[in-house]
Amino acid sequence: MFRKKNTLLKRYLKVLVYLLLINILIVFSTISIHELGHFFIGSFQKCENIKIVLLDANNLNTHTEMNCHPNTNINIIAYGSLLSVTPISFMFLFFEKRTERYYGVLMFGLNLIIATSDIQNIFKSNILYYLQFTIGLCIVIWTQISIVNDILTEDRGI
């Protein structure tokens, strides 16, 4: 009985560490691809001095800095983040295992959360901000629960 509890605890700890590492990887990848979307669309719009800031001790958020011509459509640059992450996250849907497909859905949900400030800058609306954030958060929570359920019900060797 004690041995069974001990192995079950080890399994749950392994799953926890696995999920922690996967989530760190997916969050960092999503943020990087999101900012790359702003970068590439900004360069196509002929903006200059473009730089991606992933870590800023003073600002505590990631952002892309650029100098654009006054006639540049900033909305297109803001939507570039959604347009860059969405196809990559949907590529995960072609994987064989259901858990790996959930990683793409997780990436999509995280991008919705990350892009809330971009959408708020475009529409100047708190309602859209909270709606998009809530939808993204629901997607993230659902995928986390689904991933844990899949890992614990399948014999994955973790």
Order of helices and strands: HEEHHHH
- The shape is elongated
Strand proportion: 5-15%
The chain-level mean pLDDT equals: 85
Order of strands in the sheet with most strands: 1-2
Task: Say how many strands there are.
Answer: 2
Radius of gyration: 19 Å
Number of helical runs?
5
Summarize the amount of helix as a percent range. Answer: over 70%
Largest beta sheet, briefly? Answer: 2 strands, antiparallel
SS-based structural class?
A: mainly alpha
How many domains in all? 1
Cα distance spanning the termini: 21 Å
Low-confidence stretches: none
What features would you describe in this structure?
The protein has 158 residues and is mainly alpha-helical. The protein has one domain (19-153). 72% of the residues lie in helices and 7% in strands. It has 5 helices and 2 strands. It has helices at 2-44, 74-91, 98-114, 116-123, 126-153, and strands at 48-53, 63-67. Strands 1-2 form a two-stranded antiparallel sheet. Helix 2 (74-91) runs antiparallel to helix 3 and helix 3 (98-114) packs antiparallel against helix 5 (126-153). The radius of gyration is 19 Å and the shape is elongated. The protein starts with a helix and ends in a 5-residue tail after the last helix.
Quick take:
This protein is mainly alpha-helical.
What labels would you give this structure?
about 160 residues; mainly alpha; 2 strands; about 5% strand
How are the elements arranged and paired?
Blueprint: H1 2-44, E1 48-53, E2 63-67, H2 74-91, H3 98-114, H4 116-123, H5 126-153
Antiparallel strand pairs: 1-2
Helix pairs in contact: 1-2, 1-3, 2-3, 2-4, 3-5, 4-5
